[in-house]
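Methods — Computational structure assignment.
A single polypeptide chain was analysed. Its primary sequence is given first, followed by the predicted tertiary structure written as structure tokens.
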Amino acid sequence: MQTYLEVFSHLPTLLTPRLTLRPVRMSDAADMYEYSKDPEVARHVLWDAHRSIHQTREYIRYLLRQYRNAAPGTFAIALRDSGKVIGTIGFMWVQTENRSAEVGYSLSRAYWNQGYMSEALQAIVEFGFQKLYLNRIEAQHESDNPASGHVMAHAGMKHEGTLRQRIYNKGRFVDVDLYAIVRSDFLSHP
């Protein structure tokens, strides 16, 4: 069994019917900037819309450092047919002692409501249980972004509650909905 350090220092490539989830590369900067500059994509996440491709490159440098440090990792979400990067998904944190983790993601607005993020999240959940041997994977979304909750539910996650004014984001305190899936749910999810 690989350790978390081994897995996160050498993120694998995961394939789904329409997507390739793989480590981010500097050559992804143009694709990532294309969606990261969209204020609607950044609206419900903790980062601000990118103002230049230089900002996107700096974010990629950060991700590459995370890989080198074997920290919980982020995958590029690329279309299998063209290789175009349309988003990212990855682990925000992993608690080894509790075998639990949180997943976060973002997706280009041009690909919303087409099942791409559900496909990516299902692959990450499977990876978390089968390769990282996690017992619990959770995710959260701002309560006024119910589409993200639908993605989580589609991946077999269960709504565990609303955390009132949990985070301060873009000048306001926001409620977040917490979803999670545990190993026994995953093993019984069709």
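Note: DSSP finds seven helices and eight strands in the chain.
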